[in-house]
Amino acid sequence: MIADPWFYALAVPAMMIAEISKGGFGGGVVVLAVPLMSLTVPPQQAAAVMLPILMVMDLLALWVYRDSFDRGHLRILLPAAAVGVGVGWASFGLLDAAVIRLVLGVIAIGFTLDYWFQFRPRQSPAGPNRILGGFWAVVSGFTSFMAHAGGPPLNVYLLPQGLEKRLFVGTAEVFFMFVNWMKLVHYALLGQYNTGNLTTTLALAPLAPAGIWLGVWLQSRVSDRVFYGVCYGLLLVTGLKLGYDGVVGVFAGP
Known about the structure:
This protein is mostly helical. Helix content is 75%, strand content 0%. It contains 11 helices and no strands. Helix 1 (5-22) packs across helix 10, helix 3 (43-64) packs across helix 10 (207-219) and helix 4 (71-92) crosses helix 6 (130-147). The longest helix is centred in the last third of the chain and has 29 residues, at 224-252. The protein is globular.
């Protein structure tokens, strides 16, 4: 079990934010969790600790949204996501912690700037689109494997489709349940599930039901605006710190 108290000081709020987001409030801010935890432990370890908890969140959230998902979009998204996860697995095994911190920093900064300045295209054809859906699902599978950061790329495709709110959340939940089960196998192949990581996961897991419930409750009662603003501001600061640490680590060498 991870003994560093600073890890838990960062992991507990990171997990709660992720769980609230999984409950349907706050969209893609699950991306915040691994970068925050990576300030105190290697990114590979942070991602491995969080994955089983994400899977518990997926099951709870899927029960809430079990009657709300779009099969047409999922038929396009799921096979492409499998390709992205495979690319992430191949890359993850080749990169050291400094390089992954740098990648996470770039992802975090990029997603924050895109949220603030809306660089990405905001329009796409109505209805399922194999080219756009396939491309963004591959990106989502890759970033999800690297940092559980698949939400923003998926949102690039799904948000302009104009799905009803519950249908949008339910489609995303089915997508990420599929992706997370695939990631579990690949993480195990990378040797990430030792006794220390699993006991840390068990210590954090009881937070999941409370966070999911709070996300469902907040979805219909509170505006996302302040929540997004705080989370993305924190994500930017975290991304800058991870990017700095990654650059220093890469240029410092072995």
